[in-house]
């Protein structure tokens, strides 16, 4: 029997992860994949009941220690409670997944209020900074410590109908690049630029059935919309020792999407 294990560097045993927005969709897939690789996982979601239910299901399926709790990442008190609960349960934090993010469509970008722009920035950008700061003392002591962010392709390409969301995600990219340089040898920081992955959030964002159908057949090299597992696999690589020489990067996972505006009219 061969002694070489090609998957050894992808295993996440002795890692403790927080996944924000992990109750469903992409966040759930990330939490499940990290747990399946051996990590202890705290699912932090605005919906506490959903977080706990999802955690219980993943724990049953993977045999890993997975917990869930309610957390509004725009509130410092909630962030602090999440971090302290994770450390109390798992003994530390090695892996932070800033997955929370949401934005709505605006037909006229110049009609978007300053208040809406600020609220998008609070949710999609500042929340990631705040929870990263709260996790810093534990990340800096952990082996293979990582902060990995759910970015968006619209944070790198024009998307005028998502002007508030795209601007906030673009800020996230730049902010996290700065943190990668700040942490340097202590913590690796990367962002995944996520392309079109159809989830329940599309309708809530204001994209009707016609637009969602068009997005199911995007103009990309692979020729299909993404699946949550496509994104989760990228997060496993970026958080595991397999990517130990990767930091300060924005990794596009979009089916080979062209660098043009992908949203249909």
Automatic annotation (TrEMBL):
Keywords: NADP, Oxidoreductase. It comes from the Bacteria. SUPFAM superfamilies: NAD(P)-binding Rossmann-fold domains (SSF51735). PROSITE patterns: ADH_SHORT. It holds the Pfam family adh_short_C2. Belongs to the short-chain dehydrogenases/reductases (SDR) family. This is 7-alpha-hydroxysteroid dehydrogenase. The gene is hdhA_2.
């Amino acid at each position: 029997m061969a002694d070489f294990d090609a998957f050894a560097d992808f295993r996440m045993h002795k890692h403790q992860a927080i996944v924000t927005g992990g109750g469903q969709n992409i966040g759930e897939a990330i939490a499940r994949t990290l747990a399946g690789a051996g990590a202890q996982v705290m699912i932090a979601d605005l919906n506490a009941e959903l977080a706990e239910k999802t955690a219980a299901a993943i724990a049953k399926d993977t045999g890993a220690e997975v917990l869930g709790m309610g957390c509004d990442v725009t509130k410092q008190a909630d962030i602090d409670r999440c971090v302290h609960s994770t450390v109390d349960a798992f003994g530390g934090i090695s892996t932070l997944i800033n997955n929370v993010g949401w934005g709505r469509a605006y037909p006229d970008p110049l009609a978007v209020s300053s208040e809406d722009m600020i609220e998008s920035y609070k949710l999609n950008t500042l929340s990631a900074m705040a929870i990263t700061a709260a996790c810093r003392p534990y990340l800096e002591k952990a082996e293979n410590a990582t902060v990995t962010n759910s970015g968006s392709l619209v944070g790198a390409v024009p998307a005028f109908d998502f002007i508030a969301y795209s601007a906030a995600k673009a800020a996230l990219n730049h902010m996290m690049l700065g943190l990668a340089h700040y942490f340097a040898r202590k913590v690796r920081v990367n962002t995944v630029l996520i392309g079109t992955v159809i989830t329940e959030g599309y309708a809530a964002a204001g994209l009707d059935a016609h637009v969602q159908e068009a997005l199911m057949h995007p103009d990309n090299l692979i020729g299909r919309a993404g699946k949550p597992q496509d994104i989760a696999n990228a997060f496993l690589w970026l958080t595991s020792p397999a990517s130990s020489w990767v930091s300060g990067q924005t990794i596009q996972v979009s089916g080979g999407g062209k660098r043009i505006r992908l949203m249909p009219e």
